Amino acid sequence: MATQRQLNLPDELILMLLNEQTGYFYQVPGWSLNCAVIGAALADLSLQSRIDTDIESLVVLDPTETGDPVLDLCLKAISKDKTPHNARYWIERLAVHAEDIIDSTLDRLVKLEILKHHEGEFWTLAPAMWHAQLHGYSHEHTASQFIKSRISDAIFSDTIPFPRDIIIVGLVHSCGLFHFMFEIDEKAEKRIEQICQMELIGRSIAAAVKESIAVPLLRRPSFKKKIPTVPLFKILSNRHVRNGNIPAMLAEFAKEYGSVFRFKIPLIEPLTFLAGVDINRWVHRNGRLYLTSKKFYQGVENAYGGIGVLVSLDGSDHFTLRRVLQRAYSVKKLESEMNSVFDMIRNHMKSYWKVGSHVQVYDTSRKLSNAQIMPLLTSTETNDIFEDVMTWKNAVQMIHIVFNPPKFVTRLLFNSSRMKRGRKAVDDAVKRVQQNHTPEQRVGQPWELADETLSLYASDPQFFPEANLRFMMSSPMLASQYFSDLMGCAIYAMVTQPDLYEKIRSEADAIFSNGDPDPENLELSDIDVTHRFVLECQRIYPVVYLIPRNVSNSWLVDDIELPVGERVFIVMGATHFMEEAFPEPFKFDIDRYLPPTSAHRSTSFAPVGLGTHMCLGIRWVVKHMAVNLLTIAHHYRLELSDPNFKFKFNAYASLSVSKKLKVHIAEQLNDFPS
Question: Are 184 and 178 in contact (CB under 8 A)?
Answer without folding.
Answer: yes
